[in-house]
Amino acid sequence: MTSTVRKSPLPMVLTSVDVLSVRIAGSVGMAAARSRCNLVFSIRGVYLRGQNLAFLYRLPPMSDFTSATEHIAAIHQGKQDAQELTVEALARIDSIDRHGYELNSVIALDFNAVENSEEIKPALPLAGLPVLIKDNVEAVGLPASAGSLALRDYPVKHDSTIARRLRKAGANIIGATNLSEWANIRSPRSTSGWSALGGLTANPWKHPHSAGGSSSGSGAAIAAGLVSLAVGSETDGSIVCPASLNGCVGIKPTVGSIPRDGMVPISSSQDSPGPMARTVTDTALLLEVMMSARGFVNAAHSDFSPTIGFVKSWTTTHDGTNSLLYDTVAKLSAAGLTIVEIDAPTPDDSVGLDEFHVLLHELHDDLGEYLSQRCGKSLSSLADVVDFNRAHSESELHHFGQEYFELALELGGRGAEYLAKRTRNVDWASAMLGRAFTGVDVLIGATYAPAWLSNLGGSDDHSGASWITTAPSITGDPVGCLPMGITDGLPVGLGIVAPAYEEELLVASMARIEKVLGLGILQPSFLR
Question: CA 436 to CA 454: how far, in whole Å?
């Protein structure tokens, strides 16, 4: 059925930046149209400037689990258009994220999202597909706040390299995702998925449970079917954790392989942006764009048979997760893949403390440099952020403090102590992974137990985490996560580690494992 949008005196744009009400009348009549879809709906911060939105009459308010690859093929064939997909994504965000289930994964939307979709050439690799980015990555039209009120009044002036590459490839960056504030480096009592600016992101499987972090919103939005592609970032576990807890795919590539300008930093030695999606192929597609490289999608379609090292110490304290891990290893072996069991020591307390202190030393310097460039003298150091939080304690410090920020100020920046800690850690991690990679292509293990109950002010329950991300985070090696199965009604992920700059090997191995497991795209239960 076709319909037309009646030009009427009703305003298509409201000037309020908080709520835009779009009212559309058409030849099918308002009553009938309302019964087909919500022709009166609210989308925060989005301006629909007179576009022909007739297709809203058939707009489904439910999740879309179609892969990015399928959507792009349909656009290239003229069966879909980017404007339609953009408005559908915005409507899903309104009906699932803002209202309805109240997932709360999206912290901001671009005012010009629909208008921008009209300008994107459909022949481009991403064909105008709506994409979300984590709110610590600068993209004009979005806050890049790291979830903090401190950055709210410092608008983004330039796209980061990541955003430029996305737009050049035809991505329509429609919004930013919520995150653990400051990427979860503020307090030992912090709650993953909470930020002062964005509130608490829920888990799309069971609302009271954690979405993980710090790329909480990216993982939750992908798993919930709001969009098919999202950007996350990771220092140690911040892509892998939400991928595992929400039931999607994520890759942290080799540290330094993607430019990090315009990304709110923690650690130059461990930070990396990375792609999140629902399939390995889609994740590889976004990785190609972010790395400005080729070959990852082809690797995902190869029939590569990796020799897999199963690191027996990379397990969790959760019996159901460990059972799925052993079942996965058995399935991979039954499919003809060579499995080598590897005994590798878990890091002792000194390794963990050294890594943590290295992050704080680097945070002291790296965040200060970023702030001085973006904000000028009014907010130019970590100390300024600490002072801001104290001055706005009711909003910023109501649930938990900023003990890690204060410790970073006490430790100071890169000095002799920092160098000693960093050297010890790199020596340990390099030796451990060097031995583990002998004779195998990739390493696998469990990542996290199922999502714990969120407890604002009570800290996260990390007792079910494995050690899989520790060594590669220190060395900068790439790590991926894909769904391994469901236990206790919640997804858990399998972790895969590859040597540095071996992203093709990582993608090919992940794709083969995905094929063997045969889980398809997981669809969350949306249980309250």
Answer: 35
Supply the range of the domain harboring residue 294: 81-300
Mean pLDDT of 432-458: 97
For residues 86 and 52, membership in a common domain is answered with: no
How far is Cα 150 from Cα 143, in angstroms, rounded to an integer?
11
Give the Cα separation of 445 and 303 in Å (integer): 22
- Of 11, 4, 98, the closest CA to residue 53 belongs to 4
Confidence of residue 283 (pLDDT cuts 50, 70, 90): very high
Residue 150's pLDDT is 98
pLDDT in tens, 172-188: 999 999 999 999 999 99
What is the per-residue pLDDT for 457? 85
Contacts of 372 (CB under 8 A, 6+ apart): 380, 381
Q: Is 214 a catalytic residue?
A: yes
Measured distance CA(477)–CA(190) in Å, rounded: 27
Q: Is residue 184 part of a domain?
A: yes
Same domain flag for 55 and 87: no
Domain count, the chain: 2
If asked whether residues 133 and 209 sit together in one domain, one would say yes
462 pLDDT band, cuts 50/70/90, is confident
97 in any annotated domain = yes
For residue 372, is pLDDT > 80? yes
Shared domain check, 206 and 131: yes
* Cis peptide preceding 302, ω within 30 of 0: no
Query: Is pTM, for the whole model, over 0.70?
Result: yes
Measured CA to CA in angstroms, residue 88 lies from 44, 56, 57, 165, 295 at distances of 14, 8, 11, 24, 31
Beta strands in 394-454 (DSSP E): 442-446
Is 356 contained in some domain?
no
pLDDT tens per residue across span 29-87: 323 222 222 322 334 334 344 444 444 434 445 799 999 999 999 999 999 999 999 99
Is the same domain home to 26 and 130? no
Copy the structure tokens of residue 139. 């993209």
238 is catalytic: yes
* Residue 188 and residue 52 share a domain: no
Please write down the long-range contacts of 383-389, taking CB distance under 8 Å and 24 or more positions apart.
383/409, 384/150, 385/148, 385/150, 388/149, 388/150, 389/150
Q: Which of 95, 105, 134, 244 is catalytic?
A: 134
The residue among 333, 337, 329 whose CA lies nearest residue 312 is: 329
480 phi, psi to nearest 5 deg: -130, 165
The one catalytic residue among 67, 117, 214, 466: 214
The residue annotated as part of the active site, out of 67, 160, 190, 238, is 238
Give the pair of three-digit tokens for residue 81: 């258009």
Cβ 339 vs Cβ 332: under 8 Å: yes
- Give residue 222's identity as a one-letter amino acid code: I
Euclidean distance between CA atoms 496 and 493, whole angstroms: 10
What is the mean pLDDT of the segment spanning 445-453?
A: 98
Percent of the chain with pLDDT over 70: 88
